[in-house]
Amino acid sequence: MVQVKLVLRIAKQKDRRAHNIVVQITAPNGLNDNAKTEDERQLVMRLLKRWHIVTEF
């Protein structure tokens, strides 16, 4: 497997509609997301770390 596409659904918030964030993970160490805000980028990284997909060295 070379690439995995992960779609995260973000619930409706007070100031934003519900939307998807697409994360593409490529082997051996690529990561690309289409997050629009810094908060969304941080949320994606927290989730990927929690699921042991991404680790920090």
Description of the molecule:
With about 55 residues, this protein is α+β, with helices and mostly antiparallel strands. The chain has one domain. Helices cover about 25% and strands about 35% of the residues. It has 1 helix and 3 strands; from the N terminus they run βββα. A 3-stranded antiparallel β-sheet has the order 1-2-3, with helices on one face. A hairpin with an 8-residue loop joins β1 (about 5-10) and β2 (about 20-25). The relative contact order is 0.19.
Share of residues in helices: 10-25%
In round numbers, the mean pLDDT is: 89
**Class from helix and strand fractions:** alpha+beta
Shape: elongated
List the helices and strands and how they pair.
Layout: E1 3-10, E2 19-26, E3 30-33, H1 38-50
Antiparallel strand pairs: 1-2, 2-3
Task: Name a few traits of the molecule.
about 25% helix; 3 strands; 1 helix; alpha+beta; about 55 residues
Kindly summarize this structure in a few lines.
The chain has one domain.
